[in-house]
Amino acid sequence: MPELNASEWDVFLHSYPEAHLLQTAAWGELKAAFGWDVLRLAVEAPEVRQRLGAQVLFRRLPLGFSLAYIPKGPVGGDFDHLEGEGWRRLWAELDKLCRQRRAVFLKVEPDLWEMAQEGQSEGEHLTRILPFGLLRGQHGIQPARTVVVDLQGDEEQVLSRMKQKTRYNIRLALKKGVVVSPSDDIDTFFRLMRLTGERDAFGFHSLAYYRKAYELFHPTGGCELLVAAYEGEPLAALMVFRRGSRAWYFYGASANEHRDRMPTYLLQWEAMRWARQSGCLSYDLWGVPDFDEATLESNFTRLSAGLWGVYRFKRGFGGQLLRSAGPWDRVYQPFLYNLYCKWAARRGREL
Known about the structure:
Layout: E1 3-4, H1 6-13, H2 25-32, E2 36-45, E3 50-60, E4 66-71, H3 85-100, E5 103-109, E6 113-114, E7 135-136, E8 145-150, H4 155-160, H5 164-175, E9 178-182, H6 186-200, H7 207-217, E10 223-230, E11 233-243, E12 246-254, H8 263-277, E13 282-284, H9 293-299, H10 307-314, E14 320-324, E15 328-331, H11 334-347
Parallel strand pairs: 4-5, 12-13
Antiparallel strand pairs: 1-2, 2-3, 3-4, 5-15, 6-14, 7-15, 8-13, 8-14, 9-10, 10-11, 11-12
Helix pairs in contact: 1-2, 2-7, 5-8
């Protein structure tokens, strides 16, 4: 089996500078430190004279079974033309790997946006040809829908695409003495994360998880921890990541005090400025409620629970509402897979 170690995978990814951050070896190391097994493989694709590959995460289950997951991959090739010899080789190797690991199913969330055909309404999405026996999954792991901010142009152009109230809040934070600066204080970041999780009923990772993420990505310039403070008191913090021309806002938190100073607005703007200075052209705000734009716009003023409050905040930055393609599921144990689907539907989330 054409498996690669972390160093060999990094060499492979060098040919794909726009591959998603979740397919990097560093992300695999992060997940490996917290309960996942990570395997990476690549095959030759003679029809395009390049290699195709995937970083696969395995979560162990009772009785020797596992769940297999490819986040924002595979890497390489054209997702709209999946019938080539290289793709057949890759899916054959993935099948072999998953069967060896007694995977109940393989979940694939491709690095691909769902697009509507011309003349269709939002929600009537283009049905892509699913590769090699995969099913269209009902439950995803990463957020299905997000807002992506265009960072192209000068700063005034980026600001001009935002809602007027958001621009006002960014400037208000500056006037009220909020200062944003890089930090390595993971303990303070985690304290704010715990406050936010308890206040807004959001899940969050452990202190060790955020520290590991920072240690893996920050030394290579792949992430920054930014803290917004007033007179030295931390009010909000976020961790922003980047690869190629894209940046992602994965983790953020805020205190209960001084919310009238609008620290989170200035914090996001400074994260966008950091991303622009790093050569990024887009900034993914990573997760809003999974409804079409008309539904979101007609309900965000009256709903605030869960991600609805998040949407109200994120929409102000003037990004494009996009929905991910997938998830795609490759089933190896149909009976156990059906049990999983019922459990996931009741739980309302995965893994």
